[in-house]
Write a structure and sequence with these properties.
Shape: globular
CATH superfamily: Aldolase class I
CATH architecture: Alpha-Beta Barrel
Strand order of the largest sheet: 1-2-3-4-5-6-7-8
Length: about 250
C-alpha cells in the first residue's frame, strides 16, 4: 500500500495571531479540494488555538512545534500533550535541530517527548539530520542512524509505523542550500533501512519520511519522485500562502 504524502509547514517563531489569520485565510482556498496528501500547519503556540479553529472543517491539520513528556507539572514554558490535544492538534514537531542546538534538547528527551505525544494520540514528526562538519567527514549516515535509533527506543513495531521522521540536514536549513534529490533519497532510504533493522519490514514500509531544508516550489516535485521521500517539512516557504500551496500541490 503506497504511503500517503505529508507536507508540513513549520512557521518557527513567526506570525502574530493577526498575521496567522491573514496567512491561513489566504491559504485555505488555495488548497481546497487537494486530496491524497496530508497538509499540516505548525504555527507558534500563541496561534495554535486560532489556527486549529480556522481549519476545523477543511483538509488541513495542525501541528505544534514542540511538546513536553509530562501531562502536567512544574515545567515553566512547556506545553503538555493533553493541552495540545484539547486544542485539536494532530501532529507535533519533535527534536528540530534548532531545539537541539539552541535549547539543549537531547536524543533521550526527543524519545520521551515522542512517546508522550503518541500516547496522547498526537503523531510525532521526529527531526534528524547532520551538520555540515559531519557531512564533510563522511559519517553522516552513521550519525543519522544513531539519532533514529535513540528516538525510536521503546516504541513497538506498530507504533513506529505511525510515526513521521523528518530528515533535515542542518547545513540546508534556512541557508538556501538544498540537498540534491539523490542526497535526500540516500539518507531517507538509509533511515527506512534502519527502521527495518530495529523493527520490521511492515514498520519500515509504513513509516513516512519527510525531507526538510530550503524546500521550494521549484524543488518539491523532484524530491517527491524519490522512492523513500514521503513528503516535506517546509520552513521559509510555508510563510507564504502561494508558495506553500504550490508545494502542497506538487502533483500538478
Amino acid at each position: 500500500m503506497p504511503r500517503r504524502p505529508i507536507i508540513a509547514g513549520n512557521w518557527k517563531m513567526n506570525k502574530t495571531v493577526a498575521e496567522a489569520k491573514e496567512l491561513v485565510n489566504e491559504f485555505i482556498p488555495l488548497v481546497n479540494g487537494v486530496g491524497d496528501v496530508d497538509i499540516v500547519l505548525c504555527p507558534p503556540a500563541t496561534a495554535l488555538q486560532f489556527v486549529t479553529s480556522a481549519v476545523k472543517d477543511t483538509n488541513i491539520d495542525v501541528g505544534s512545534q514542540n511538546v513536553h513528556w509530562e501531562d502536567s507539572g512544574a515545567f515553566t514554558g512547556e506545553i503538555a500533550p493533553p493541552m495540545l490535544k484539547e486544542l485539536g492538534v494532530k501532529y507535533a514537531i519533535i527534536g528540530h535541530s534548532e531545539r537541539r542546538e539552541y535549547f539543549g534538547e537531547t536524543d533521550e528527551g526527543v524519545n520521551k517527548r515522542a512517546r508522550a505525544a503518541l500516547k496522547a494520540d498526537i503523531i510525532p514528526i521526529i527531526c534528524v539530520g547532520e551538520s555540515l562538519e559531519t557531512r564533510e567527514k563522511g559519517d553522516y549516515l552513521g550519525f543519522v542512524a544513531g539519532q533514529v535509533k535513540a528516538a525510536l527506543n521503546g516504541f513497538s513495531n506498530e507504533e513506529i509505523g505511525k510515526l513521521v521522521i523528518a530528515y533535515e540536514p542542518i547545513w540546508a536549513i534556512g541557508t538556501g542550500k538544498t540537498a540534491t534529490f539523490e542526497q535526500a533519497e540516500e539518507v531517507c532510504a538509509h533511515i527506512r533501512k534502519i527502521v527495518a533493522d530495529i523493527a520490521d519490514k511492515s514498520a519500515a514500509d509504513a513509516i513516512r519520511i519527510q525531507y526538510g531544508g530550503s524546500v521550494k516550489p521549484a524543488t518539491i516535485a523532484g524530491l517527491m519522485e524519490k522512492e523513500n521521500v514521503d513528503g516535506a517539512l517546509v520552513g521559509g516557504a510555508a510563510l507564504k500562502a502561494n508558495d506553500f500551496s504550490q508545494i502542497v500541490k506538487f502533483k500538478g
